Amino acid sequence: MGEIETQVLDRERIDRILPMEQLVPLVLEILPGQAGEGLLDVFEPGTYGHKSIRELVDSTLARENWSIEERQLVEEIGRQLFGGKLLVKGREVRGSVMEHAVLEETEEGEKYLYVAVRAVKPQEGGASFPGGRA
Amino acid sequence: MSSRRNAGSRLFIHENFVYAPLLLDPEIAEAVGNAEITGRRRNRNGPVRKKEGLLDVSGRRYIRVVSLRSLVETFPQLHPESYGRMRAEALSKYRLEGGHTAVAMDEKLRAILFAVMPHFVRRRKKLGRTSFSESEILDLIGEKILIPPRYLEAAEAFFNLEAIRRTIGEMDRDGRPVEPPRNGPVAEQELREWIRRKIVWKIVESEKRRLETSLEERERFSEVEKRHLSILLYVADRGALEIDGFGFFRIASSGEYIAYVHTGEYALKDSRDGLYVFPDCRVGVSTDGPLSPRVLESYKHPLLAGHREGQKICVRRFFIPRREFSAENMIGALEEGVKAMFYGYNRRRRNGYNMLDATRRHMGMIDFNDYLVGEDDPRIAVGEVEVKNDFD
Questions:
Q1: Euclidean distance between the first and final Cα of chain B, in Å?
Q2: Is the torsion defined by CA of B99, B196, B85, B77 positive or negative?
């Protein structure tokens, strides 16, 4: 696939035109913490529709054929997920991947579904009330 | 011995040291008279008898004052204005076009630009790529920032290698080592002239070495696009940049830097599911001292003590900020700061300095009611503003 253009198509049009899961690949991006970019994985059509985001994330992290740089990302994501959470648009991941995917298109016109997930280890700041001190 | 050289001589040169006349003093005379004579030598100035630090030249006594080397080497510190004028005059005939002789980018700036920033910014990416090379970073900056033309011009001048080679050649032709004055009496004027010639020679030699180093550097840079160089010059000169929510700036007084990440607007929930939309702020970390994240703006938040600029974020228990600057440490500190702002307030436990939905308020407690929005707020409904602490 070539460079990604973020042309997000209308949901209604998507539902009308495409039985997406059988026709287009899914690109899953797992971002550690507040990183601007994350680990990318591509799932072929027909292999992801019935799965939850968590299952896809676990499958991605379990792969062994990552480059050295990608392995560093895998380790960082693992650190965040140890006691942490997976968030999609700020909320904990629930449901299947199809509920959160958006349809995008490359410059060459290839369509694909895209889901961005953040691996975050939220930790409480300071101390709770009463006490009034952080 | 030439009478011309002796005329007005009050000083004596001997083995690269300057000797001054020793004033007659009975005690000194006795000391000199009792001194062991180390030997006689005949030279044009007559017999010289020497004790450590003392000379006896045909009955005239001299005492060692200073080495010729010290006179030359300490001149810049002792006479900085004179030295500055001598330097300007000596180098004026070798003036080079172009003001930039090197990209003066300190290591912290380089780390922020090429190691910290790539962690937080997003570029258009090709699938499967994760690396973010220096060239790609500079390309990204070039896409986002309008570089003033003078930096492109400076980059052009930087690559004018032929001019530098010509100048080095001229310096080679002009430069002749300055020999020390020979042993014997020397007039003050003659000594002063020798010092001047020696200093000028050192200035030109030093500048020639600097140009040779610069030439090597520019030859190595020749494969870097001029545009990349203009961007480096721009960033090094300004010491500040902001791209896609990440930025940094140089602190004028100290030369240190503050790097920061914008939070953008975000929402927090209180214990009763009330929604509060917080404005954008910058979470920043300084390269100087403990790497503690702070909010740069005047800002209020449950994990900030008050409502003012530069507040330290109450990150989490047992958070010990790293003291030593490194890209990794700075990324970690920025991540901790943003994470605290987004996820650090537990809406059920209501931790922190201030509560979103305090039932009772004491003096000084911060109020967040002006941030309160309805549950059907369109920005939240369409996902433009994310609720960050909606955890069970």
A1: 103
A2: positive
Residues of chain B with pLDDT > 70, as a percent, come to: 83
Nearest to B131 among A39, A69, A127 (CB): A69
Q: Residue A57's pLDDT is what?
A: 93
In this complex, do A134 and B303 lie within 8 Å of one another by their Cβ atoms?
yes
Separation CA B92–CA B260 (nearest Å): 44
Q: Give Cα separations from B317 to A117, A119, A126, B20 (angstroms).
A: 27, 21, 6, 72
Mind giving me the DSSP string for B183-232? SEEE-HHHHHHHHHHHHHHHHHHHHHHHHHHHHHHHHHHTTS-HHHHHHH
> How many interface pairs between A and B have CB atoms less than 8 angstroms apart?
118
Neighbours of B91 (CB within 10 A): 17
For B189-216, the pLDDT digits (tens) are 999 999 999 999 999 999 999 888 888 8
Q: A65 and chain B: CB distance < 8 Å anywhere?
A: no
Q: Which residue carries 């986002």 as its tokens?
A: B144
Q: Which of B122, B334, B345 sits opposite A125 (nearest CB)?
A: B345
Q: Which residues of A touch B276 (CB under 8 A)?
A: none
Residues B167, B207 contacting (CB under 8 angstroms):
no
Mutation for A interface: B131, B351, B363, most A CBs within 10 A: B351
Which residues from chain A sit within 8 angstroms of residue B328, using beta carbons?
A: none
Helix axes B149-158, B226-238, angle to 10 degrees: 120
Predicted confidence (pLDDT) per residue in A41-85, tens digit: 999 988 887 788 999 999 999 998 888 888 889 999 999 999 899
What's the complex ipTM? 0.78
Q: What is the DSSP string of chain A?
A: --BEE--PPPHHHHHHH--HHHHS-EEEEEEETT-SS-EEEEE-TTSSTTSBHHHHHHHHHH-----HHHHHHHHHHHHHHTT-EEEETTEE--SBGGGT-EEEEETT--EEEEEEEEEE-----S-BSSS---
Query: Which residues neighbour B113 within 8 Å (Cβ) at sequence distance 6 or greater?
Result: B105, B137, B235, B241, B248
At B161 the pLDDT is: 80
Which of B130, B139, B273, B294 has the most A C-beta neighbours within 10 Å, making it the best mutation to test the interface with A? B130
A27 inside 8 A of chain B by CB: yes
| Residue A125 to residue B340, Cβ atoms within 8 A | yes
Give the separation between CA A104 and CA A8, rounded to whole angstroms. Answer: 5
Residues of A in contact with B383 (CB under 8 A): 89
Distance (Å, whole) CA B277 – CA B268: 7
CA distance A134 to B388: 20
For residues B352 and B389, the answer to whether their CB atoms sit within 8 Å is no
More confident of the two residues B62 and A129: B62
Identify all chain B residues contacting A27, using CB atoms and an 8 Å cutoff: 127
Q: CB–CB of B246/B260 below 8 Å?
A: yes
